[in-house]
Write a structure and sequence with these properties.
2 strands, binds heme C
Length: about 180
């Protein structure tokens, strides 16, 4: 619980950040923070880097919000782009550097994130936090052709591209809304 709250408060400081709500009765509390925190407008440089990240890391799947993993996870990903989940996602040197810095500066402050096998997590979907949040989602919901894998956040989270994962925005293909 504390982890989710920290993540969302950190995210609120970023324009276009991730809005996470632990559950609906927590929302008011978060919206209070949201209305009192004035996000610093992005500089043209920051805007360009965000656009670069969205283009390059959003070409095969959605551009995941950096807040879902700590810096060391992103560093590991950036070191192994030539063999990235069976694909080659290499970048030229200057784009590589910009994206690595972008990920590092927006990463989760929780550096302890390991995957379910105990290694530095490469996948958001294999972190203990993610697994816990999705424990009631059945295998069939995930493996159906309209979703394919948990990596397709935006197949179920209709506002994921905007960084919002509220429960009331979830629509699972062929199942509909998520009712707890
Ligand atoms: C050439 C295609 C391609 C590009 C470009 C690409 N990826 Fe991926 N990525 C993949 C594939 C394929 C997977 C595995 C998807 C699955 O399991 O369904 C993946 C998975 C991931 C995951 C794990 C998702 C999960 O399950 O939690 C992360 C994190 C990730 N990519 C980050 C990045 C970053 C950062 C970049 C930009 C530097 C990037 N990707 C660019 C193909 C790509
Ligand atoms: C098959 C559909 C599906 C996919 C794909 C999926 N999720 Fe979810 N997600 C859910 C459902 C359903 C819940 C609510 C589970 C519950 O309340 O028991 C949820 C909950 C969450 C929550 C907690 C939200 C809250 O308000 O408590 C977060 C954060 C989240 N997902 C992020 C992600 C991310 C990031 C990805 C991709 C890496 C992803 N999800 C992929 C269905 C999905």
């Amino acid at each position: 619980m504390t982890k989710i709250v920290n993540l969302s408060i950190a995210a609120l400081l970023l324009a276009g950040g991730v809005y996470l709500y632990a559950d609906d009765d927590k929302r008011e509390e978060h919206e209070h923070h949201r209305s009192t925190v004035v996000a610093k407008p992005l500089t043209p440089q920051e805007k360009a880097t965000t656009a670069l990240y969205t283009k390059e890391c959003g070409a095969c799947h959605m551009a995941y919000q950096p807040q879902f993993l700590p810096k060391r996870s992103w560093d590991k990903t950036m070191k192994t782009l030539d063999n990235h989940f069976g694909t080659d996602a290499s970048l030229d040197q200057s784009d590589h550097k910009s994206i690595q810095n972008y990920l590092a500066s927006h990463a989760s402050k929780n550096d302890q994130v390991v995957d379910v096998r105990g290694a530095v997590a490469l996948r958001i979907s294999e972190t203990p936090y993610f697994v816990r949040e999705h424990r009631e989602v059945t295998k069939k919901m995930v493996t159906q052709p309209e979703v394919k894998s948990f990596a397709n956040c935006n197949a179920c989270h209709t506002q994921a591209l905007k960084g919002s994962y509220r429960e009331r925005e979830i629509r699972i293909p062929n199942y509909g809304r998520w009712e707890d």
